[in-house]
Design brief:
The structure holds two protein chains of two kinds. Chain A has nine helices and no strands. In chain A, helix 7 packs antiparallel against helix 9. A two-stranded antiparallel ribbon of chain B has the order 1-2. A two-stranded antiparallel sheet of chain B has the order 3-6. In chain B, helix 4 runs antiparallel to helix 5, helix 4 runs antiparallel to helix 6 and helix 5 packs antiparallel against helix 7. Chain B has eight helices and six strands, in the order ααααββαβααββαβ. In chain B, about 40% of the residues lie in helices and about 5% in strands. The chains are: A mainly alpha, B mainly alpha. Chains A and B meet through helix 6 and helix 8 of A and helix 5, helix 6 and helix 7 of B.
Chain lengths: ~280, ~300
């Protein structure tokens, strides 16, 4: 349970939180949260949060995002949306990691200090770089959990209530897979959609540049892991961005598919995520 | 004929180390002063002229424009550098060539995955630069001028970088590129329509970084110690901590921070899980300035 009050008032809890976030490279963002910075534009802004780019014909204009009421309003809604997706990812990737490690599907993620000793690749690799792919999977499970925690604290910092995990939990519709190739191929679209989710929501926090900058560091990580997974699966292949069904473009005419990252609207991401809800 | 073997970083650790800094570049030219180094390059303008060697670091004040356009120009400076870097890197790995500055690069004629990705990333960085240049111009701004660069791959250095070192420079450049986009965020107007596009470009740079890390790990051998850990370097002095308890340190022979990964076997090396350090525009420009050898010369287009 996130105890924002405890983090802000208890030096030990604060230090522990900042250290955990620093490990994920979110130390600056976390410090911002705890100093009261960020979230300066907390009004309901279910629009693109800024100019529509109409003055530049190459920029098609941001999509209008609609956040479900359960996420709250304004920046809180955006942060809870991010938290909801990260929470789902953390659960799914832990399940995938468990199967890849020969553990029970629903086994809880162990404390990070025990991760290397606990998680060892126990299924067939079937990919060029199984060690690399397994390492990415292991890191992803913890990083997404850390992102979820960060967004939860960010919500509390803005006076909101962090969105709870899906009551029934999460699962891959057909299971994570039986070998590392299948597992990573099931993880990949979830991961790629994470990139699209962050980029799609970014205009809605673009009036708070500190918050956007922190979100940018998370976005960077998500993109790295998307590429890393692709590289591990096929180190001669495409590392992305690769077009997915329903992708939106940030420019009207991109020279190639790899020039710009793609994005999706909130509605589109939530529709995609629905398949993983129990 | 057997292909030239790419020297592993473990073999290089005892020789010279690449790093993304002017000090590192001069370290390779041990004993050669700046003037002599410059004279080794065919000059397009008189030495000592303000239009020749960038004797002082580029600063944010030198970047044209204001607000959004200035931020886009900061990004463009990095994209231009990366585009030229990949061009030179490919020359070095293949049959060689002559840079736009006139520096001669001898080719190593190696093959491998690096080339495949270098070519793709060259194309993407060139597309980024063209997009930014067009966008700035369309908005009524002045794109930052195209500079000329040297990266230690050619005749400017008595010991041009080998393939592993080239990879490290490229990796560091891409990481710097990601950091530049993050550093640029506060420079935009809140709600700027360019932010989402700039962020989308940043994401592709992050992808490049991941792959380059993967290549570096493959090149240097998973489970291998690829650099000496100097005695006396405390944990507090190291920059990155892996969440799994391994320390990802910078090569101590590369004080500017070329990210040769160090780990303790048998744990596989993985790329750093951390997003990028939040740099500042001036720190970004200070980092790349040593590689700019020609600024604003009349015949630089």
């Amino acid at each position: 349970m996130i105890e924002f009050e405890k983090i802000t008032r208890d030096p030990h809890s604060r230090r522990s939180f900042l250290e955990r976030m620093s490990v994920l490279g979110l130390g600056v963002g976390a410090a911002h949260l705890l100093s009261g910075c960020g979230g300066g534009g907390g009004n309901n802004n279910n629009n693109n949060g800024g100019n529509n780019g109409g003055s530049n014909p190459s920029l098609p204009g941001a999509v209008s995002n609609v956040y479900p009421a359960r996420f709250g309003t304004g920046f809180v809604a955006v942060l809870n949306y991010s938290r909801a997706y990260e929470t789902m990812e953390a659960s799914l990737y832990t399940q995938a990691l468990n199967i890849a490690s020969g553990r029970a599907l629903g086994a809880e993620r162990v404390p990070i200090a025990q991760a290397n000793a606990t998680y060892q690749l126990r299924v067939a690799g079937n990919i060029d770089r199984p060690e690399l792919g397994f390492q990415f999977l292991k890191q992803l499970a913890y990083i997404e959990a850390g992102h979820s925690e960060f967004f939860g604290v960010a919500v509390q910092a803005l006076g909101g209530t962090p969105i709870a995990p899906n009551p029934g939990g999460y699962r891959f519709p057909k299971g994570p897979g039986n070998n590392l190739r299948d597992i990573l191929n099931n993880v990949l679209p979830v991961q790629e959609t994470s990139n699209r989710a962050v980029l799609g929501a970014s205009p809605d926090i673009a009036r708070d540049l500190n918050l956007l900058q922190t979100a940018g560091t998370i976005f960077s990580t998500e993109c790295r892991f998307s590429a890393g997974l692709r590289f591990a699966l096929d180190d001669q292949g495409e590392i992305g961005p690769v077009a997915m069904s329903g992708d939106r473009q940030v420019v009207t005419q991109a020279p190639s598919a790899q020039t710009f990252e793609k994005f999706k609207s909130v509605q589109e991401v939530l529709a995609f995520a629905q398949q993983f809800m129990v | 004929m057997s292909e030239p073997q790419i020297q592993t970083a473990s073999q290089e650790a005892t020789t010279h180390s690449p790093n993304f800094s002017r000090r590192g570049l001069f370290a390779l030219s041990a004993g050669v002063g700046a003037a002599a180094l410059f004279n080794a390059i065919p000059a397009l303008a008189a030495p000592g002229s303000p239009q020749t060697y960038a004797s002082t670091p580029l600063t944010f004040n030198d970047v044209p424009g204001t607000g959004d356009l200035k931020a886009l120009n900061l990004a463009l400076a990095l994209e231009d550098l990366e585009s030229d870097l990949y061009t030179q890197a490919i020359m070095r790995l293949t049959g060689g060539g002559t840079t736009t500055y006139g520096e001669r690069i001898t080719g190593l004629n190696v093959s491998g995955q690096q080339l495949r990705y270098f070519r793709e990333f060259l194309r993407v960085e060139t597309e980024h630069a063209a997009f930014l240049r067009t966008t700035i111009t369309a908005a009524g701004g002045t794109p930052i001028g195209k500079f000329r660069y040297t990266f230690g791959f050619g005749s400017s250095s008595p010991t041009p970088y080998n393939a592993a070192q080239v990879l490290n420079v490229v990796l560091d450049a891409e990481r710097t590129g990601v950091a530049a986009y993050l550093a640029a965020v506060p420079l935009f107007a809140p709600g700027s329509p360019y932010l989402q596009t700039a962020t989308s470009i940043q994401g592709t740079e992050a992808r490049h970084t991941a792959v380059l890390f993967g290549l570096a790990n493959i090149l240097n051998g998973l489970n291998a110690n690829i650099g000496p850990v100097p005695s006396g370097v405390s944990a507090a002095a190291r920059n990155d901590i892996d969440p799994f308890g391994r320390e990802v340190t910078q090569n101590p022979a590369s004080p500017s921070g070329s990210p040769l990964l160090i780990t303790t076997p048998p744990t596989p090396i993985a790329f750093e899980p951390q997003p990028d350090t939040l740099a500042t525009p001036n720190s970004i420009l200070a980092k790349v300035s040593p590689f700019i050898v020609l600024r604003n010369a009349p015949n630089v287009t």
